[in-house]
Structure formats: C-alpha cells, structure tokens
Amino acid sequence: MSAQVTAAEAKDWLVEKLAVRLGVEQSEIDPNQYFDEFDLDSTEALILAGELESWLGFELEATALWYHPTIAALSEHIAEEHARHAAAA
Amino acid sequence: MPRPPDRGPTARSPLLRPTRPAHGAERLRAYGVHPGGLPADVWQGLGAALPPDVGLAVFDLQTMPEYFEAALTGAQPAISLAEMARRCMLELTASHPPGLPFTLVGWSFGGVVAFELTRRMYAGAAPLGLAVLDSIAPTPDFKRTDELLEPPLLVRWFAMYLAAKRGRPLTAEPGVGGETAEDGLAEVLATATATGVLPADTTMPGLRKLYDSFVAGLVRNNRLVLPYEPGWSDRPLTLVKPVRGLLPDHGLLGWDELAPVRAVASPGDHYSMLFDPSAWALVADLISRPAVSTAA
Prior knowledge:
The structure holds two protein chains of two kinds. Helices cover 60% and strands 0% of the residues of chain A. Chain A is built from four helices and no strands. Chain A has helices at 7-22, 42-56, 64-67, 71-88. By secondary structure, chain B is an alpha/beta fold. In chain B, helix 2 crosses helix 7, helix 3 (81-95) packs across helix 4 and helix 6 (181-194) packs across helix 7. Classes of the chains: A mainly alpha, B alpha/beta. The A-B interface holds A 20-21, 34, 36, 41-44, 46-51, 53-54, 62-63, 66-69 and B 1-2, 4-5, 7-8, 69, 72-74, 162, 165-166, 198-199, 201-203, 205-210, 212-213, 216.
C-alpha cells in the first residue's frame, strides 16, 4: 500500500478482520477493548498481525501490540508509523 | 512512547505459580519448569494425574521480563541461563516447606533450566528426582547457533506447534519438506487450511508472522544455551522422550554426556505430550515415585 493510511482506515481494517475472525458483526467490535479481551487466541492474533503488515507494506515493531493494546490506540500508531515510512521513502 | 500497559505475560505474574495443591498431608511437591511457547496452564494436566498427596507448582519462565522481551525484540537475552536458574532457586527456597521432599520436571528448554537448578542445590537440599521432557542437552554436539537452525527442521517443529496450539492434528506434519522455510510453510498452510486447523482464508503473510514468532522463541533459547557449559553431574535424571519428539533419532539427546540418564518413551510429540492425559500419567508416575525415577 502506498497511499497514506489514516487512523480511521486502519481502524476499519482491524474491525473488519476481527469481526470475520470472531464471527460477529462489525458493530460488536469495541475499538477501545483490549486485544487480549477478544476471544482470539495468540495464534490468530499473530496471523492477523502478519496480514496487517502485509496490507501496510511494512513491519510493525514486535512491541506494538504491547504499547498500543486496543484497536483505537494501534490505529493511531499505525497512521503515525505509515507517515514516518512514507517520509523516509 | 507510552508506558507498557499493566497487562501481558510479565504484568504482575509470579514466577512460581501454585498449580495444584496436595489434598490432605503433602508427601511430595513437584515443581514444573515451563519455558513458554504454550500457556503454563498446560501443567494442570500433570496436576490432574498426580496422586492426591503430591502438590504441584510451576515456574513460568516467561514472567522474567528479560527472557520474555528477548523473543519479542530478537535481541540477545539480557539474562543468562544461570541467572534464570538462580531466580528459580530463590523462589523455591523462599516458599518451600522445610523438610518436604520435592522433585523437578522441566519441559523443553525448561528441562535445561531445571538441570541447572538441580546442580546448584546442596546435597541435603537437592530434589529427589529430575525429569526432563523432550529437552535437548546443552552439550556441544547439540547446541545450535542461529545459522545452524535448518528450515526443514524448524518447519517440522512449527507444524507440531501449530497443531498443538490449535488443538487439532496436522496430518501432513511428518511429510513437511522443502529446502526453504517458504516451501515448507506453503505445505503447512495448504494442509492446515484444508483440514480446518486454520481458517480457510489464512494467508501466507499471516502464517509467516506466526512462524517468525515461533522461531524467535527458539533462537532466544538457543542463545541462552550456547554459552552455558554445565559439566558432569552425578545426580541422575530421567529423559521422557515422546515418540515424535524434537529429535527422534538422537537417542538420549546428549544427556548421557552430562549425568546418569535413563529414557522413558511417552506418546505424542514435543507439544502434544503436554495435552495427552496418558503422557502426563506416565510423568506423574515417574515423579511421584522418585526412588524409581532416579535410578540410573
């Protein structure tokens, strides 16, 4: 992905993927809920992280989910990181 | 950068977890040493298999921040294996009832830490027995630098790990091949999605991330083992070796170079043995009769 990813776009991506993985409606995904409170095992969480990085086109640092443990917080972080990567390119 | 939240494996988690108290008068306490990879809760299977008068507590090594973070960051661990064993010994001596016999059981890398823990104890305070569950001995022939971690072997281990994590057998595991990790992972992905081990829409980048995380844990443990040179110990140990273990064709996995050892076969593979009641029953029998388990 080359265009700037906004926090809203990252949030939408995460909500959509999580809803599919959990088999629930997107409206049931609370962006402020901690990732480890979703019914998602660590295997699924890592797979989702890999797919997210593939979509973004760059790797997130391994501690990203630790420091930004909700969809809302991670989306803001992704937007900042994407802007940083775009500026460095 | 914001502070890490008060969550995750290292957040206020004790190193030593009481896992199953003895019922009535405690005759013996077993201590498990768990290196991560799977949740430490898997040891409840051993607790269920032990006789009522044997208690169980588990050292969850992932609660040591330096150990946990080394797998996240890929950096050299900011802790040594000896220091990890020392911390376990401090916990044990601080909480163990005086005079109560105890025994140690370590799975995988946890077996190496349990071995060092045993070596550090004075004769009068030593465990009655030590059992290592599919642990590879820290000897020159079995140590691996990062470069020597061969993709076909890693992918085979990863397939076993994935099956255990998902709670379903991955039937193609023995046939996983290919010279590169990518070849092997493509085979794992095809089989895992076809058999329902993973959702059908799982992609290779997703699986690759899981694999990289798995390998990062192995690399961390290998780096901890590389500088560790324990020398011979006269204290016997029992190697519990599953039928489809890490290195099924390598006999005693090097332990005969370090201690009097005997091997006992168990069902399952390196990971599934931790979910198999019959494997845990075998381990429970070994450690609850330590006079037998310590026979060379």
